[in-house]
Amino acid sequence: METKGLIKMKSTDRKLALKGVNPDLFDEFKSLRSSVKHNFQKDYNTYLRHMENDLVSDPSRFWSYFTNKSINSPDSLFCNNVRYNNDGDIANAFADYFSSVLSDCVGDLVKIENFTYDDVVLAISELKSSLTVSVDNIPSFIIKGCSEFLICTLYVLVTLSLRTKVFPEVWKQTKIIPVFKKGDAQNCKNYRPIAILSPFSKIFESIIHKKLYNQVQNLISTSQHGLIPKRSTATNLFCLTDKIISSFESGSQLDVIYTDFSKTFESIDF
């Protein structure tokens, strides 16, 4: 029997046993519980085996798994000369630190072009269908499934937000996952935040991104690979390898300079 079916049977037997319907159901419940644990391990091993077999064709699946396994909360945290040991205090310390390192807005730098109803339709269609939820507890697949009922309302909200330059407060709320970078794991400065945004916030962001990118794409160097559509560290290494091989073949000199900007995103003017 599949794991889901065993879980349902286990839950049913447990409820009936607690109600005293049949004392023998406790033994059946224990047996089903053991079967569920066995199936969980079996299913998990199958999942790992499939992920390993698909490593070449779908590497993102592996890296998503690796990232999730790498996320561990520290038992204690040192932040602003204060040590925190309670989970709630640690979470608040992370929140205070992450909010303190952002740069203030420098004002109006670009003009957002008028957008259309179709822009909202496109932004919703590009949402990834996911069960992950932010603080609003609304998964993106619900938004996509009910898009025909939400498009007009979202169009009005985004229009008002741009016109009044006021971003809805509820869309600013997000779940933050601290991800350890390197160094002392108990120092808050050695973590970067990963935000789980509301689907509505993602829709707004998608619309704005397209409008901004159309204005600045001609200003971006053709040699840039980071944060550019269809480019990545892989394409960067490919280009570098090509230049190295060409230099070897021609006998010319090639100098490579590596730089690393500390906390790059925290230094950007918004």
Number of strands: 4
- Provide the spatial order of strands within the biggest beta sheet: 1-2
Uncertain segments: none
**If helices are DSSP runs of H or I spanning 4 or more residues, what is the number of helices?**
10
For the report, how would you describe the main beta sheet? 2 strands, antiparallel
Summarize the structure in words.
This protein is mainly alpha-helical. The protein has 3 domains: 3-69, no CATH class; 77-218, no CATH class; 222-269, no CATH class. It is built from 10 helices and 4 strands. The strands form 2 sheets. It has a two-stranded antiparallel ribbon with strand order 1-2. A two-stranded antiparallel sheet has the order 3-4. The longest helix has 29 residues, at 25-53. The protein is extended and about 80 Å long. The model has no long low-confidence stretch (mean pLDDT 84). It comes from Araneus ventricosus (Orbweaver spider). This is Reverse transcriptase domain-containing protein. Residues 160-270 form the Reverse transcriptase domain. InterPro entries: DNA/RNA_pol_sf, RT_dom.
